[in-house]
Design goal:
This protein is an all-alpha fold. Helix content is 78%, strand content 0%.
């Protein structure tokens, strides 16, 4: 019996990217970043408890450019995940399901994530260099 052509299910190439789709994917990705960051936090706490030399090595790594990039990504993921979680809580209360509200809250989360992350790092960098 010859095999016949079967229809393929739709792929992401067919769908037009929307902010709601992107924010859902990034919410999951930020959760993964936070889980890995929690391991980094445990490593930092272990170095702190281990004493001076171990902590000094840990602090030097975090003060380097790659360490700062990792800390920046972690802080941005933390802020984004928090704000998008608040957005989801509003949805759980039954508010914000209209298309205009979905887009407005999505852009608001993006703007506030950029603003809050920049504010956190401005305080960190100004505090480090008085």
């Amino acid at each position: 019996m010859p095999s016949r052509e079967r229809p393929l299910s739709p792929h992401l190439q067919i769908y037009r990217w929307q902010i709601t789709m992107l924010m859902s994917i990034l919410h999951r990705a930020s959760g993964v970043v936070l889980a890995v960051g929690a391991l980094g936090l445990a490593w930092w706490l272990h170095a702190l408890a281990s004493g001076g030399e171990t902590y000094a090595a840990c602090a030097a790594l975090l003060a380097s450019l790659p360490g700062k990039v990792v800390l920046f990504v972690f802080s941005a993921a933390l802020v984004y995940h928090l704000l998008n979680g608040i957005r989801h809580l509003l949805w759980d209360s039954g508010r914000g399901y209209g298309i205009p509200s979905l887009y407005a809250s999505g852009y608001t989360v993006w703007a506030l994530t950029l603003l809050f992350t920049a504010a956190i790092w401005a305080v960190v960098l100004i505090g480090a260099n008085p």
